[in-house]
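From the shared-data thread, chain only:
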Amino acid sequence: MPGYLGRTKGWIATLMVISLTSCSEESTSPVVDTIAPAAISDLIITDSLGTAITLTWTASGDDNQTGTGAEYDLRQAMWPITEVNWNEADQVAGVPAPEVAGTIQQMTVTGLALGTRYHFAVHVGDEAGNWSSVSNAVAASPYPEAGFGFLVATRDGIFAVDVDASFEFFISGGREVEVKGDRVYTRGISEYDLDGMLVRRIPVPDDIPGYINFAALPGDRFALMSHSLDSIYFIDDAGNRLADLGILEAPDNSLQNLDGIVVGDAFIISDDGNNHLLRVDLNTYEMSVFRDLSNLSGWLGAIAYRHGYYYICQAQKIYRFQESGHLELIAELGPDLYNITAIVVAGGHSFVTLNFAGAIYRVNDATGQVTSFLEGLDYPTDLELIWR
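Structure, as tokens:
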């Protein structure tokens, strides 16, 4: 037995030496990092007023969504950025270093040209040279902090409002206002220049019944929208009838809202009383259903279009969608902010008038944040973007 135990101890000692040697060899071998950071998936534009655009995103990690990455490669271009055309995009300088995964980060890109549409995307790299795939791509056009503003129609008249919320009287009268190029139109139809000087009056045929809203169309044409008769009447600037369209087979005696915008050669109308957006071809005056939103409870109202997105409002909600995309809720206003009557989209924000609140509110389209822009208005009913 003693001899057996002695041999066993020697065998065990040999194993320990081998094991320690093996561990020592493994500990000196380099560990290869092959795990790339996760791609940024929530890159958004949170502001674009002035000659700058602010980008916000959530940091991913060194290894997928864990740890801290080493660097960002942010690119900008005049076209949508993908992996295929990545090297053709311009690298943005001054990008902050990544922070720990899950941290909200932000950067403002400056020195941009007003009114020019910029596209952005980002890669994340780690210390081992692994790079994530490209992030989601975003785009926006910076708008000047001065030089543009709004016309808002109220019971007290139409006021010109700057982006700093200062305002001055523009013209008297007019519950609805339209801006087309360098001309302003009010219900009636009266045409003004940008200084508020009357240019001419457009005759409206006597046999066209009362209308709730109107729109200025290409080719010196106008669309007069009647919710009591569920009809739209098209006239030229001499008052000639061009077409009459019924938005329903027969009036249903329901007084829905009616609003319309021009997109290309089409006139998009909200709505037919059944939560359908309609499309009128302005070459043929043929009408079709553009978007079925009957899944939404409550009426539809103000509508706008900007950079490929359609914006549609309900009393307290703002949605947007691309022509072939899903409907996205941008924001739901507070309980005391009721009845959106008009919407204008500029600088990454939606500006909406609320007649019962007597105010204009500003909504960040990326975050949904709602802030007061201008209060103390007497029943604002319409809003238009204007360059001054």
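Residues 1-25 have pLDDT under 50 and may be disordered.
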